[in-house]
Design brief:
160 residues, mainly alpha, Arc Repressor Mutant, subunit A
Length: 160
């Protein structure tokens, strides 16, 4: 007999739903106050953390779709927030880095993003926050482990 599944109790759904709602809410600030979208913010932050990198490195680091990263890069370049330079190791590739204007935008956005995050986490105690991060780290590690093993749930016959 098949077990019933409640979306409200299915962890992948709950995590995805929460992440999407959080991203959309925060994106309103990025868009209205700074004129950038979620993907552009993630590329901006990744470039700040990683310095000069290739677009494929941003795709891997942020886990965003290649097309979404490509569009964000193009938009940020048009706005003067990032620059491309031919890679020394591969002349077909371009290394991306923040311009001075991009670094300034990052410095302005971060306090606002952290302020929003603080408000979001306000109902949680410091212990709850630490526990949340600990659990998320464990789940991230587990997903990576399962992906390396190429583990998938055991298949069962649709007819019992």
């Amino acid at each position: 007999m098949t077990k019933d599944l409640s979306l409200q109790e299915f962890l992948p759904y709950r995590l995805n739903n929460a992440a999407e709602r959080i991203s959309v809410a925060l994106s309103r600030i990025y868009q209205s106050e700074f004129g950038i979208n979620i993907a552009e913010w993630r590329v901006l932050a990744a470039l700040h953390e990683r310095r000069a990198v290739l677009a494929k490195d941003i795709v891997n680091y942020t886990h965003m779709d290649k097309v979404r990263v490509s569009r964000a890069i193009k938009s940020l370049e048009e706005k003067g927030y990032l620059q491309r330079q031919t890679s020394l190791s591969d002349s077909r590739a371009a290394e991306l880095s923040l311009t001075k204007k991009g670094r300034e935008l990052y410095r302005v956005v971060v306090p606002r993003a952290l302020e929003w995050q603080k408000e979001l986490l306000e109902p949680l105690s410091e212990i709850d926050r630490q526990e949340l991060h600990r659990i998320l780290n464990r789940l991230d590690s587990r997903v990576e482990e399962m992906a390396r093993r190429k583990t998938s749930p055991k298949k069962t016959s649709p007819i019992e």
